[in-house]
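ARCHIVE RECORD
Type: protein–small molecule complex
Small molecule: MU-OXO-diiron
Source of inputs: curated submission
Record status: active
Notes field left blank by submitter.
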Amino acid sequence: MISKRMNEALNEQIKIEGQSSMVYLAMASWAEIQPGIDNVVSFFYRHSDEEREHMLKLIHFVNERGGFAMIPAFEQPTLTYPSINHAFKELLEHEMMVSKSINNLVDISLQEKDYATHNFLQWYVAEQIEEEALARTLNDKLELIGDDKGGLYLFDKDILTVSVGTEE
Ligand code: FEO
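STRUCTURE (tokenized, with ligand):
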């Protein structure tokens, strides 16, 4: 059985993962009306799906441990971006925020001596390392490309091979 404090902290994370899914869904929809970046569009849609999976995993864990996963209201995500570079920059910043939040949860699990939750969270710790590294790589590439249209074409081809999340 998880403590009230742990339950509340996990519910906060459920909101963050769900919100991440909305943020990337909005990026996908915006990217879909830009010309010539079909693979970037799929990347954002896949990323949004991944975040929903992260949220679901938390929901099941909380409920299976005798807590109650409360489904929150989500905030309106940013709808448009000045450029692809801006969208990917926001993606990186967003993932850095999520990593902080996961680390905070790990801290709480130790304070609560909740070793089952601590163990469960290790998957998220590993996932965040992957996601942040990927977001950084993509941002570095975009920085090199700058305003070069040919570079963006290659970036779109390249992103097809990228896997968004770690396998379970
Ligand atoms: Fe589930 Fe990208 O954090």
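CURATOR ANNOTATION: The chain has a mean pLDDT of 95.
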